[in-house]
Specification:
This protein is about 75% helix and about 0% strand. The chain is mainly alpha-helical and about 290 residues long. The chain has a single domain, classed as MetI-like fold, CATH 1.10.3720. The protein starts with a helix and ends in a 5-residue tail after the last helix. About 40% of the residues are buried.
Length: about 290
């Protein structure tokens, strides 16, 4: 059997185990809906006229057929704003995790493969970053760089680098002790080829699961930073900033914070369900 057929059959087996997990499938469906909303946000409602344009005559309206989620203090349609906020939250979450995965993966791979002084230097530096809570480190970075979507992605990404480095290092340490790695060294394969062709592909499962879970964490961090005024600035629709603007009216107009909060909860819950499903599906002991 060729390697391509083996990979195909293994992928099919992983998918079968994944879809047997009802919670994971539910999470995948919810995220699929969110991705669809983000992709067709401009079709659902125009950004300039519906998401950010003020209409004081319709402020604080309750949910209705005209405004599914009601309107905010400036008369803007909350449903349209939540839909456009989906695009921002998912984009920031995915890009920030990609930044952390790239740099954390490189540092963790080097530390785990070479060991010794390289491992000590890299991991002690990352231990310093790990001593600082993720959200506090992100706040420090954003406060230093200034508030913008790009700086927000950089801040959340940098704050998550130590976690990815530790997961990658642990996976590399496990894989590099296998006999086929020793065989690759014996035939004279260079270190970079052993690392990228033989070790890292076999570290994919735990890193992928961790990345899925960290997207949820990044969405929460993005919302938290925007809530305290260090993330996405109004009038740009973002779930955290929508919560911040609606908190003053929570007693009389609860819908202004309920729907953005519900989107944060559903996105984080669904990503965690997908992560748990991937962990179970990729676990070799469950084959």
């Amino acid at each position: 059997m060729s390697n391509g057929v083996k990979r195909k059959s293994r992928g099919a087996a992983i998918w079968r185990r994944f879809i047997r997990n009802k919670m994971a499938v539910a999470g995948l469906v919810i995220i699929g809906v969110f991705v669809g909303l983000a992709a067709f946000a401009d079709v659902i409602g125009d950004y300039q006229t519906k998401a950010i344009k003020m209409n004081i005559k319709e402020r604080h309206q309750a949910p209705s057929v005209k405004h599914y989620f009601g309107t905010d203090e400036f008369g803007r349609d909350i449903f349209i704003r939540v839909v456009h906020g989906t695009r921002i939250s998912l984009f920031v979450g995915i890009i920030s995790v990609s930044i952390a995965l790239f740099f954390g993966g490189i540092l963790g791979s080097l530390a785990g493969y070479y060991g010794g002084r390289v491992d000590t230097i890299i991991m002690r530096f990352l231990d310093v970053l790990l001593a600082i809570p993720v959200i506090l480190l992100a706040i420090t970075i954003v406060a230093s760089l200034g508030t913008s979507i790009i700086n927000l992605m950089i801040a959340v990404g940098v704050a998550n680098i130590p976690g990815f480095a530790r997961v990658t290092r642990a996976s590399v340490l496990t894989v590099k002790s296998n006999e086929y790695i020793e065989a690759a060294r014996a035939i004279g394969s260079p270190n970079h080829k052993i690392l990228f062709n033989h070790i890292l592909p076999n570290c994919f499962a735990p890193i992928m699961v961790y990345a899925t879970l960290k997207v949820a964490t990044a969405i929460m961090a993005t919302a938290g930073l925007s809530f305290i005024g260090l993330g996405v600035k109004p009038p740009t629709p973002e779930w955290g900033s929508m919560l911040a603007s609606g908190r003053d009216f929570i007693r009389d107009h609860m819908h202004e914070v309920f729907f953005p909060g519900m989107m944060i909860m559903l996105s984080v819950l669904s990503l965690n369900m997908i992560g748990d499903g991937l962990r179970d599906a990729l676990d070799p002991r469950l084959k």
